[in-house]
Amino acid sequence: MLKNLEELRKSRDWSLQDIADKLGIAKSTYAGYESGYRRPPLHALIQIANLFDVSIDYLLAREHTIDITDRLLQGKQKISIDHMVLDQEECDEFVAFIRAKRDIKKKLR
Amino acid sequence: MLKNLEELRKSRDWSLQDIADKLGIAKSTYAGYESGYRRPPLHALIQIANLFDVSIDYLLAREHTIDITDRLLQGKQKISIDHMVLDQEECDEFVAFIRAKRDIKKKLR
DNA sequence: AAAATTGTGCTCAATACGCGAACGATTATT
DNA sequence: AATAATCGTTCGCGTATTGAGCACAATTTT
To answer: Which residues share a beta bridge with B79?
Structure first.
């Protein structure tokens, strides 16, 4: 369920003790998360995500479709291209383009 | 922490009993999530996210930016417009489109 | 060789959880 | 209008799950 935790920690060159100190928990507790022996409760998971600066969905290896037409209206969830955040205006034209394209395809049938 | 849960449920016109049945839990349990009286454990949160078809980060109203460029070009990240998934060619076009648009904007300055 | 660090596994106390039940407030049915 | 049904809220209690400490072997450092 949390398959990347150990790799993520080692990529930072942190020991279990290091990360436990950062989170303010016992190293055995964090070891339990990594091994899958225990599942972190929500508040712990959030702190872990903050520490590594990744999304919760990434930690959970969750895949989901991002709908551009819904998404940008939702405020706090942002996506970026080439490390530059996508704004509404940038998307609108492309959305119009795809819609037109689909429309044509539909009429050709 | 999960401030959107009630709104999300009502947007679907579901009662507490409805959603409890869908999730296979007691309505008082789900009511606890909505009110903030209890926090859903991870496995419950995942099921809720699946039910509403949203990301965990959205449920948690977490501010986070994810860069999808690489994943998009590699076909690992799906995006949709009007709830219709884009194919690989369209995904490539999307990235190219955004890049081109930014390029133009840059030159105009 | 000794001492410190690392990761693992275990037990136990404390916490957090899920459920059922009861409640008042609306809404629907007869 | 009276009754029944549905809705959301809250509580207590039994249970499940967690967190921390401790001990251990393996590795590294001094």
So the answer is: A66
**Rounded-to-integer distance, Cα B31 and Cα B26, Å:** 9
Put simply, the answer to whether A42 touches B43 (Cβ < 8 Å) is: no
Tell if the CB–CB gap between A68 and B79 is shorter than 8 Å. Answer: yes
The pTM score is: 0.83
Nearest by CB to residue A42, choosing from B42, B55, B64, is B42
Model ipTM value: 0.82
For the sheet with B84-85, list strands across it: A66-67, B79-81, B84-85
pLDDT digits (tens, 9 = 90+) for A2-49: 778 999 999 999 999 999 999 999 999 999 999 999 999 999 999 999
Give strand ranges (E) for chain A.
66-67, 77-81, 84-85
Domain boundaries, chain B: 5-59, 69-108
In sequence order, what are the residues at sequence separation of 6 or more whose Cβ sits closer than 8 angstroms to the Cβ of residue A26?
Answer: A20
Q: Is B12 on the interface with A (CB under 8 A)?
A: no
**CB contact B100 to A (< 8 Å):** no
Give residues 45 to 84 of A whose Cβ lies within 8 Å of B: 45-46, 49, 55-58, 60, 62-69, 74, 76-84
Q: In 10 A of CB A109, how many CB atoms?
A: 4
Residues in chain B: 109
Task: Give me the CA A24–C1' D29 separation in Å, rounded.
Answer: 26
Instruction: Determine the CATH number of domain A5-59.
Output: 1.10.260.40
A55: amino acid identity, one letter: S
